[in-house]
Amino acid sequence: MSKNASRLPNKLPFVLMGGHICVDACQGGLASVLPFLVIQSGFSYTEITALVLASNSASAIIQPLFGWLGDKKARPWLMAVGAALAGIGLALVGVLQSYWLVVAAAMISGIGNAMLHPEGARLANLTGGDDKAVSMSVFSVGGQIGFCLGPVISVAAITAFGLIGTLVYLIICIPYALVLLALTPKFRTFGVRAAAQAAAGVRDRWGAFSVVLGALSVRSIVFYGVTSFFPLYLVATFGASEDAASLLITVFSVCGAFATAASGMVSHRIPTPRLMVSCFALMALALVAFVTSGNVWLCVVAVMVLAPCVNLFNPPAVTLGQSYLPAHLGMASGLSFGVAVAVGGIASPLLGVLGDGVGLVPVIWILVACAAAGLVFSFGVLANESRFRRLK
Predict the structure, then answer these.
(1) Which of 217, 270, 271 is nearest to 385 (CA)?
(2) What span, in angstroms and rounded, lies between the C-alpha atoms of 52 and 70?
(3) pLDDT digits over 130-173, tens only?
(4) Residues 6+ apart with CB under 8 A from 90
């Protein structure tokens, strides 16, 4: 990353990465607060499930709206407000007593998350200059770092101070929100440039973008499926300990973060459509190997193959999707980070219901089918790019 990061015309992508770390630490930290809410506040599992659904829905559904607002007029201050709301909402989750107030606080945190992503991804594109894929990889890896840090922060703070330990997110998010707010004038200059480009008559390619969005959506289903069901499969099939199975997914997440960080460098050598085809093909093969091998160590190898395959193409694919909507970078960002991730979040509990009914093997075969669908979408992206080059 360091060699390619030096090609960036400024350090602003790293500032955006910091904001991404803050809001996704809140989103990841919320999941770790839930067991404490059940034990200490007496909430039922149904109430907890509804709380998570409310937070994720608020985040995912509203993101395209904020992207649309950013396309109409540069609003980099949305990132500062988003970081602040994400932290304030999660901080209140551990303080409030009424269930519905806790739901409202979780939704506020989700809305804050939704405010930062589209504007942050739009600016990651613009501040990257000629190296947009590297800039997007810097921004994207911040989300994975945040998801990893969130549970650690929540558990440590609540263990030390009780549920009011969630107030630690105020210490994390509010100061960084002030940093983003101070840099608003600098970020706004990039928004003016985007408006000038849009006014020059650049044409959006919504059809080509929808194919990329399809690939990102099935990628999200596979990602959620691996992290949710593979530990359960290893425990049920091979008798692995829960700690060992969870450790494997932790390693999967860490390797995925490194792959995301390296994605910009890789995109310099492999065109994004070909990278997508390669990743989805290997993804499908690794999933088939996982479910058919009958050997725990082969399953471990399959998971290690999946880690880079699921993550390596993601930032360049988001950047490619943005290039198809040059006059609507914010909308492209909101759809890529919001709707695509929401598809995985919605599919995961549905796959859980299927797993309860018929077992985990059919669930994993559905993930194979998703990877195959992603391969089809990737060939579609490749065909669109070839057609576009011929028309130039």
Answers:
(1) 271
(2) 27
(3) 778 888 889 988 888 998 888 889 889 998 999 999 999 999 99
(4) 26, 29, 30, 33, 105, 106, 109, 166, 169
- How much of the chain, in percent, has pLDDT values that exceed 90? 38
| Rounded Cα distance, 293 and 300, in Å | 11
pLDDT bin (cut points 50, 70, 90) of residue 303 is: very high
Confidence of residue 301 (pLDDT cuts 50, 70, 90): very high
Residue 44 to residue 46: CA distance in whole angstroms: 5
With contact defined as beta carbons under 8 Å apart, do 127 and 191 qualify? no
Confidence of residue 6 (pLDDT cuts 50, 70, 90): very low
Distance in angstroms (rounded) separating the CA atoms of residues 333 and 328: 9
Length of the chain: 392
CA angle 356/360/361 to nearest 5° reads: 140
**pLDDT tens per residue across span 82-92:** 999 999 999 99
Main-chain dihedrals φ then ψ at residue 167, nearest 5 degrees: -60, -15
Residue 205 DSSP SS3: coil
Torsion of CA 71, 328, 19, 249, to 10 degrees: 150
Cα(333)–Cα(78) distance, integer angstroms:
14
Q: Which residues contact 387 (CB under 8 A, 6 or more apart)?
A: none
**pLDDT computed for residue 197 by the predictor:** 56
Q: Rounded to the nearest 5 degrees, what angle is found at the Cα of 340, between the Cα atoms of 248 and 272?
A: 80
Six-digit token pair at 270?
């492999």
CA angle in degrees (0–180, nearest 5) for 148-151-155: 145
- 272: tokens are 């994004």
Question: Which distant-in-sequence residues (6+ apart) come within 8 Å of 177 by Cβ?
Answer: 22, 80, 81, 83, 84, 87
Distance between alpha carbon 111 and the CA centroid of its chain, in Å? 15
